[in-house]
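Our platform keeps sequence and structure together, in a single record for each protein. This encoding replaces a full spatial description with a residue-level series of whole-number codes. We quote a single record here, exactly as it is kept in our systems:
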Amino acid sequence: MSYSLKIYGILFISFWLAVLGRVMAQDSTTSAPQKVPTFDKAKIQKYKDDPRFQYKEVQKPASPSALYRLKEWLWRNFWEPLSDPDKHPIASKVYYLLIALILLYAILKLINADLTGIFRREPSNKISFTEVDENIHEMNFAQLIKEAKTKQNYRRAIRLLYLQSLKKLSDKRLIHWEIDKTNQEYVQALQGDSLKSDFQELTVRFEYICYGDFHIDRNLFTQIEPLFEQFNARINQTRSKPTHI
């Protein structure tokens, strides 16, 4: 999981822990004596005699249906503890914790986070530093990409596809490749070129997948690989920039 995702997770959990703490906290302060209010008995009796304020309690049917029993069970075991935590302290705490976990899980799924990475590491799918620092002009991309796909290491395959595109841009002298340059520097180098928008989109996808620790499976890879192939085809059709003397 990426550093930023961990930060968001910690902030989210801290927020819910604070909420649960307030729910579970007992009021230890002593309230100051207060004056007991008095009520007008005549007005109270007036409201009692008014038909608009006479509510009849719904009686439980002699033979309740299955739906009625289900609704009553849900009210007694779920809604009532949540609406009155003082009366049901243990159950309310458990339910609030479950709600927090469900919300956290839903958020992680929405942002397509690799949930398996929370509990275990997958070193085989990580990008090695030697590969990052390797000279792209000395790499056999066809062979390396094929090996990565065979091993189902799709994150590494995406990395190799991106480096292959950098090599093609460099071969056309559209960029000047250097090991210590950032991806955004390469994007800016294409300023004014029709390839820039497509390359910027590929860069965003590449960084999310390789550095954002997002889970990528075969289905997602088969959607992204053609984008690189189409981009590389456009590079091949582009005229090389003249060499500066």
Observations:
- The CA atoms of residues 113 and 222 lie 19 Å apart.
